[in-house]
Structure formats: structure tokens, C-alpha cells
Amino acid sequence: VAEGLISYQREVKDLPIEVVQEVLDQLACIDRALAGRMMNDMLIVGRSGGGRRSVVSLLAHMFRLQVFSPPPARKYGDKEWKRDLKQVMQMTGVEKQPTLFFLEDHHL
Q1: pLDDT in tens, the chain (108 residues)
Q2: Where does residue 38 rank: exposed (0-12), middle (13-18), buried (19+ CB within 10 A)?
Q3: Any idea what DSSP says for residue 68?
Q4: What's the rounded Cα separation, in Å, for the pair 32 and 21?
């Protein structure tokens, strides 16, 4: 995990996360879901500011997954949702990029 964090900070951006037991538990749960044969779906629920995005970004980097998250926008309706869904489907289906689709509560 420490090597993955160093690699992430070197290649992507600085990640202000402390590797404590809670973070390791989250990493282990998400790792278990992503390491399956079919790269299963998962739903992560938690309080705001709990580090879900940081943990998911770190693991996606370690698994060499492309992270797709809709950009924050004032107006995010059906048209924008369909556009983003089409984009992520093209990334995974047509371009064969292993992709992690990260959707947060403010996107809904």
C-alpha cells in the first residue's frame, strides 16, 4: 500500500491520506470487490469527507484502472447523464479500457 501511495503521488497528484487502520480496511474491502474475475460492482456508503474518493483513486491507480467521474456542474440532468454514461460505455466497451465509474451523491 505504501509503495502504491508513493507511486500515485509521483505519477498523478499529491494524496493527503494517512495510512491508518480505517483506510487499510477500506482498501481491503474495495480490493476484494475489484480483484474478482468480473471486476464486480460495488456501492460505497459513508459520511462526507471520509476519504472514499482518495481510497478509490489510489486503488484504481494500483489496478491500472481509468477513473471516470462526471464533472461537477450546476445543471446536471438527464441529457448530461446520458452523455456521461455514453462516454464511459465507449471507454469500457469500444476502447477496452479498464474503467472505474465513480458516481457521488451530488451527481444524482
Answers
A1: 777 777 777 777 777 777 777 777 777 877 887 777 666 667 676 666 667 777 888 788 888 888 888 887 778 788 888 988 899 889 888 888 888 888 777 666
A2: exposed
A3: E
A4: 16
93 closest CA partner among 56, 63, 68, 58: 68
Nearest to 58 by CA among 26, 91, 36, 89: 26
- Residue 43 grid cell: 456501492
Cβ atoms within 10 A of the Cβ of 68, count? 18
71-106 burial, b if ≥16 CB within 10 A, otherwise e?
A: eeeeeeeeeeeeebeeebeebbeeeeeebbbbeeee
Residues in the chain, overall count: 108
Q: Please report, for residues 60, 64, 79, 108, the alpha-carbon distance to residue 28 in angstroms, rounded to integers and kept in the order given.
A: 13, 17, 36, 27
Question: Are 98 and 39 in contact, with CB atoms under 8 Å apart?
Answer: yes
pTM of the model: 0.68
